[in-house]
Amino acid sequence: MKVFAHRGASGDYPENTILAFDKALTFDIYGIELDVHKSKDGHLVVIHDEDIQRTFKGKGLVVDYTLSELKKFNCRKFEFIENLDCKIPTLREVFELIKDTDIILNIEAKTDLIHYDIEQDIIDIIKEYNFEKKVLISSFNHKCIKIFKELDNNLKYGALYYSEKDYSSEANVVEHAKKLGVYSINISKDLVTKEIVDLAHENGLKVFVYTINSPILMRKMIEYNVDGIFSDYPDLTNEIRKKY
Predict the structure, then answer these.
(1) Each residue's pLDDT tens digit in the chain (244 positions)?
(2) Residue 231: CB partners within 8 Å, gap ≥ 6?
(3) Which candidate in 37, 48, 142, 176 is catalytic?
(4) Which of 6, 37, 142, 176 is catalytic?
(5) What gap in Å lies between CA 133 and CA 127, rounded to an integer?
(6) Are strands 2-6 and 31-38 parallel, antiparallel or unpaired?
(7) At a CB cut-off of 8 Å and minimum separation 6, what does 115 contact?
(8) Quick count: other Cβ atoms within 10 Å of Cβ 168?
């Protein structure tokens, strides 16, 4: 079972920051998951929410700030307020961090609420760094995935699913993903069952499950034979994996 550090080592460090990604690289992990938005002046920036206020000392939408303005906001976690590695990073900064590693980067395109026309920009930087084999692109916005595939059908894509409504047009999540033509189903822990995992594998789909932070669920995912999990605690996950 592969381990993705969810927003970096976000259980112990501020999520989606260079510090969290750098700490994640110290563990035996397969990949890092992160979220990408677009700044007012067109830069790809790494942050989960459309609004900055939950994770940074400020307020307003990411799309309403330039990169230089976004860089001025300090991390909301008290002990990391002055840490320069806890600013809002660009996707390019993360690429620079991992370029000499074997890490797979799961880039979640955050176009659920605001569509930034982000697809070509992400593809361009992937090709600039020759990261075609190092990335998995995912999104809850399945129209976004279709746009990506129209632009470049050779990259790997994962369809994100949170609840049954996300695949309600089909009999099950596997049938929905097959029609999208994706590499993986990235599904919530509430949707995953052994039957779904087996069905996905029978149909050539990988199964990655989020967000798995408890030892009980980690063991269950191993028993289900999922291909990988997203966890805020990659070091804990490795402890569990070594016992199997």
Answers:
(1) 999 999 999 999 999 999 999 999 999 999 999 999 999 999 999 999 999 999 999 999 999 999 999 999 999 999 999 999 999 999 999 999 999 999 999 999 999 899 889 999 999 999 999 999 999 999 999 999 999 999 999 999 999 999 999 999 999 999 999 999 999 999 999 999 999 999 999 999 999 999 999 999 999 999 999 999 999 999 999 999 988 7
(2) 3, 4, 5, 6, 11, 211, 212, 213, 218, 237
(3) 48
(4) 6
(5) 10
(6) parallel
(7) 141, 144
(8) 9
Evaluate whether 50 touches 70 at the Cβ level (below 8 Å).
no
Tell me phi and psi for residue 206, to 5 degrees.
-85, 155
Residue written as tokens 């994640």? 24
Looking at the DSSP bridge assignments, the partners of residue 132 are: none
Q: Each residue of 21-48: b (16+ CB within 10 Å) or e?
A: bbbbbeeebbbbbbbbbbbeeebbbbbb
- Whether the pTM exceeds 0.70: the reply is yes
H-helix or E-strand containing 138?
strand 135-139
Give which of 236, 184, 181 is closest to 205, Cα–Cα. Answer: 184
Identify the residue whose tokens are 């050779």: 154
Q: Would you say how long the chain is, in residues?
A: 244
Q: Which residue has the tokens 């000392």?
A: 57
Is there a catalytic annotation at residue 6? yes
Residue type, 193: T
The first and second tokens of residue 145, run together, are 């995935």
The token duo for 95 is 């690429």
